[in-house]
Amino acid sequence: MTKDNFQFKVNASIQLVPLGGLDTYKIIDLAIEEIQKTGFPYEVGPFSTSIEATLDEILSLITAIRNRVFNEEAQEILINVQIQARKNGDVSVMEKVRKHRV
């Protein structure tokens, strides 16, 4: 594997689940704000947010989300992540959903 392989974009789905009875939507909104600050292409869904970036950027984003929600209000969270990567190229959200767009 060449060093360039690490620069390919992956497609990730990030789901934040706040635990402990706090204002769930407020905590999720904080996580979405962190995603928005990156400038990466993303799409908010009812259960998770899909995003395109390099793997290193995704992992840094997950850390930023965790830090933000803990610094603001959350006491305990679950972060579920799914990542699709290709050895020799980018993965995009649009290639998966393009034919289903209305």
Break the fold down into its secondary structure elements and pairings.
Blueprint: E1 9-19, H1 24-38, E2 42-44, E3 49-54, H2 55-72, E4 76-84, H3 93-97
Helix pairs in contact: 1-2
What does this structure look like?
With 102 residues, the protein is of the alpha+beta class. It has helices spanning 24-38, 55-72, 93-97; strands at 9-19, 42-44, 49-54, 76-84. It has one domain (3-100): Alpha-Beta Plaits. The protein has 3 helices and 4 strands, in the order βαββαβα. It has a 4-stranded antiparallel beta sheet.
Salient structural properties:
102 residues; alpha+beta; Alpha-Beta Plaits; 3 helices; 4 strands; 37% helix
Whole-angstrom Rg = 15 Å
Ends: how far apart? Answer: 39 Å
Average of the residue pLDDT scores: 90
Uncertain spans, ≥5 residues at pLDDT below 50?
A: none
User: Can you count the beta strands?
Assistant: 4
- What is CATH's topology name? Alpha-Beta Plaits
CATH architecture type: 2-Layer Sandwich
Helix content: 25-40%
SS field, number of helical segments:
3
Give a short overview.
The chain is an alpha+beta fold and 102 residues long.
